[in-house]
C-alpha cells in the first residue's frame, strides 16, 4: 500500500506543491512540443511551437536561477536621509581660494591671512577650534589681553535669589559662596540645564564672590573644556579690532595651557578656516 501525503488546503506547503507541478507541466509541454506562443503576422491567431533544445535549456536555467535567488529579508532599520549640501556664496569661495588647504600656517602669518579672508561687516570674533589628545579637559585661564566677550556676572545674594525665583535670569555666570549654596539647591533644575549652577569644578563657588566677579568682569578670564563625547574644544581669543600682538599673545596662552594638541584651526566670524601650526 502506497504512502499517503496529507496537505492542509490553502497552506504554504500546498501552494509550493502547486507551483512545482505547474513548472514540471510546462517543462513536459516543451519536451513534447505542446508549448506554443503567439507569432505576429500569422492570420487567425495562429500559434507556433518552440521545440528547440536551446530554448529548453534556457528555460531550465532560468528556473534554476530563480530557485537559487535568495529572498531579501525586510528590515525595519530606518533610512537616514542625507544632509543637503551647503552651497557657499561666491564671496566665501573667493576668500577660501586664498587659503592653501594643505598648508599649516605659523601664527603671525595666519593672523595676517585671517584679516584678508574675513567677511563680516562688523567686528568679528577670532575663534579657535582645537582637537585635544584626550577628553574631559577643563581649564580656567586668565588671558594677557581681553577676550572681547562681555559676560554678565551675578553674585548669589537675597536679591539674585528672588529674581531667579521670579524667572528673571539675566546673567551669564553665577558666583556663590559655600554659605549660599543651600539657598540655590531648590533652583538646580532651572540653573543646571543652562550651565549656570555654581560648581567648585568650574570655579564658581568661591569664598569672596564679589572680588571674583570684579576680576572676571574685565573679560580676560576664559573657560576651556572639551565637548562631552569628543576631545574637541571651541573657544574665542579676541576681536578682529584688536592688534595682532594682543591676539597672538592670547592664542599662544591658550595653546600653551592645552598642550599637547593634535590639531588647531583659526577662523573668525563667517570666515573660512586656517590650519594653525602648533
Number of strands: 10
Strand order of the largest sheet: 8-3-9-10
SSE succession: HEEHHHEEEHEHHHEEHEE
Largest sheet entry: 4 strands, antiparallel
SSE topology sketch:
Elements: H1 12-32, E1 36-38, E2 47-49, H2 53-68, H3 90-96, H4 107-117, E3 125-132, E4 138-142, E5 153-155, H5 158-165, E6 173-175, H6 181-184, H7 188-191, H8 209-216, E7 221-225, E8 232-239, H9 244-258, E9 261-268, E10 274-275
Helix pairs in contact: 1-2
Explain this structure.
- Among the domains are: 113 residues, Ribulose 1,5 Bisphosphate Carboxylase/Oxygenase; 67 residues, Ribosomal protein L1/L10, domain II (Rossmann fold).
- Helix 1 packs antiparallel against helix 2.
- The chain has 278 residues and is of the alpha+beta class.
- The protein starts with 11 loop residues before the first helix and ends with a strand.
- The strands form four sheets. The chain has a four-stranded antiparallel sheet with strand order 8-3-9-10, covered by helices on one side. Strands 1-2 form a two-stranded antiparallel ribbon. The chain has a two-stranded antiparallel ribbon with strand order 4-7.
- The protein is elongated.
- Helix 5 links the parallel strand 5 and strand 6.
Short characterization:
The chain is α+β, with helices and mostly antiparallel strands and 278 residues long. It contains 9 helices and 10 strands. Among the domains are: 98-150 and 219-278, Ribulose 1,5 Bisphosphate Carboxylase/Oxygenase; 151-217, Ribosomal protein L1/L10, domain II (Rossmann fold, 3-Layer(aba) Sandwich), CATH 3.40.50.790.
Amino acid at each position: 500500500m502506497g504512502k499517503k501525503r496529507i496537505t492542509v488546503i490553502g497552506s504554504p506547503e500546498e501552494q509550493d506543491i502547486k507551483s512545482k507541478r505547474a513548472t514540471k507541466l510546462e517543462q513536459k509541454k516543451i519536451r513534447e512540443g505542446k508549448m506554443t506562443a503567439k507569432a505576429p503576422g500569422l492570420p487567425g491567431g495562429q500559434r507556433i511551437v518552440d521545440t528547440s533544445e536551446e530554448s529548453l535549456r534556457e528555460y531550465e536555467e532560468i528556473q534554476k536561477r530563480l530557485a537559487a535567488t535568495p529572498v531579501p529579508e525586510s528590515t525595519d532599520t530606518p533610512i537616514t536621509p542625507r544632509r543637503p549640501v551647503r552651497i557657499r556664496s561666491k564671496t566665501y569661495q573667493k576668500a577660501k581660494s586664498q587659503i592653501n588647504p594643505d598648508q599649516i600656517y605659523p601664527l603671525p602669518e595666519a593672523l595676517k591671512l585671517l584679516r584678508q579672508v574675513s567677511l563680516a561687516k562688523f567686528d568679528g570674533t577670532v575663534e579657535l577650534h582645537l582637537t585635544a589628545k584626550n577628553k574631559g579637559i577643563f581649564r580656567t585661564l586668565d588671558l594677557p589681553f581681553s577676550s572681547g566677550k562681555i559676560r554678565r556676572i551675578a553674585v548669589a545674594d537675597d536679591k539674585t535669589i528672588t529674581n531667579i525665583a521670579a524667572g528673571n535670569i539675566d546673567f551669564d555666570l553665577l558666583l556663590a559662596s559655600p554659605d549660599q549654596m543651600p539657598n540655590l539647591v531648590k533652583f538646580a533644575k532651572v540653573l543646571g540645564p543652562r550651565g549656570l549652577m555654581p560648581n567648585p569644578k568650574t570655579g564658581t563657588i568661591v569664598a569672596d564672590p564679589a572680588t571674583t566677579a570684579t576680576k572676571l568682569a574685565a573679560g580676560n578670564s576664559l573657560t576651556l573644556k572639551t565637548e562631552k563625547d569628543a576631545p574637541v574644544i571651541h573657544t574665542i581669543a579676541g576681536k578682529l579690532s584688536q592688534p595682532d600682538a594682543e591676539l597672538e599673545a592670547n592664542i599662544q596662552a591658550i595653546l600653551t595651557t592645552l598642550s599637547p594638541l593634535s590639531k588647531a584651526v583659526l577662523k573668525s566670524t563667517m570666515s573660512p578656516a586656517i590650519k594653525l601650526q602648533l
